[in-house]
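for the recovery benchmark. tokens below, seq after
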């Protein structure tokens, strides 16, 4: 299932599964496996009407250290992401949840 995890994130029904998996993935190894599947497509998932909820769920529920690949991917495209409807929701959550050094880099 992890092979198509990014596809699940951008699917209406798949998003429900993703939210459950994110909530159940409490061990760092499981979180890292999922992150490895999401981070290459983080920008596309963040801009998606359903995918943005998946990324927001991860940022809200997982440790900041695990979310670092998402923060890094978003940081490189901030000017584009902040003016888009769905990705701006994710950026807002980043400002709430990210560690201070990441927030400073975003600003």
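predicted aa per position
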């Amino acid at each position: 299932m992890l092979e198509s995890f990014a596809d699940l994130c951008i699917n209406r029904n798949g998003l429900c599964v993703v939210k459950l998996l994110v909530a159940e993935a409490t061990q760092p190894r499981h979180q890292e496996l999922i992150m490895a599947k999401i981070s290459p497509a983080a920008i596309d998932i963040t801009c998606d009407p359903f995918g943005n909820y998946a990324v927001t769920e991860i940022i809200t529920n997982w440790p900041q250290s695990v979310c670092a690949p998402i923060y890094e991917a978003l940081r490189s495209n901030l000017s584009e992401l902040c003016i888009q409807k769905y990705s701006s929701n994710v950026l807002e959550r980043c400002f709430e949840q990210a560690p201070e050094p990441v927030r400073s880099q975003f600003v």
